[in-house]
Write a structure and sequence with these properties.
This protein has 167 residues and is α+β, with helices and mostly antiparallel strands. Helices cover 31% and strands 33% of the residues. The chain has helices at 2-14, 19-46, 63-73, and strands spanning 57-62, 77-82, 86-92, 101-105, 117-120, 125-128, 131-136, 145-150, 155-165. 18% of the residues are buried.
């Protein structure tokens, strides 16, 4: 009977938690976690780390197909929220689908966070929805525009990192 009692006592003692070790482990773990978060934020603020959300190059599609659609609708094509909240219009002017393409930032010049550009189909002009007297030509002159390219297969792409012009 004594062996049984001793055996039970050693089992019960082995499962006891060391409260001071548990508290120390928790405090150290939290401190390391908080320190890592501050390091990442600091490096991101210094420009040493870049967060990339989405592709830098937006592949629109076949130039013939999109040129026909823009011509039929008499309106540029809107694309919303590219690469982290950058809506754009893709515009084609003229008869040759392989030339005269424009990619225009669709955010309002007067209030980019709350308004977008509108398209006046009758006058063939962009307008600032927050300041409707602000009008812009169909090429997007005076607005932020991005580089457009066409590859050998006729695929239209917009480079969202290469700004051609702006305000």
């Amino acid at each position: 009977m004594e062996l049984n009692t001793l055996g039970n006592m050693s089992i019960a003692e082995g499962t006891k938690l060391n409260l001071s070790r548990t508290i120390l482990f928790t405090v150290v773990s939290l401190a390391v976690g908080v320190a890592l978060i501050f390091i990442v934020i600091k490096l991101a603020g210094d420009g040493d780390i870049k967060f990339k959300l989405g592709d830098d190059v937006f592949r629109v599609g076949e130039v013939d197909q999109f040129a026909d659609r823009i011509d039929e609708d008499s309106s540029p094509l809107p694309f919303s929220s590219l690469s982290g909240h950058r809506p754009i219009y893709v515009q084609h002017l003229g008869d040759d689908p392989k030339t005269n393409w424009h990619a225009i930032d669709a955010r309002s010049p007067s209030s980019p966070e709350s308004c977008i550009l509108g398209w006046d189909k009758d006058r063939q002009l962009f307008f600032d929805e927050c300041s409707i007297q602000s009008l812009f030509p169909p090429t997007g002159e005076g607005l932020i525009r991005y580089k457009v390219s066409i590859d050998g297969t006729g695929l239209l792409s917009v480079d969202l990192n290469e700004i051609l012009g702006g305000q």
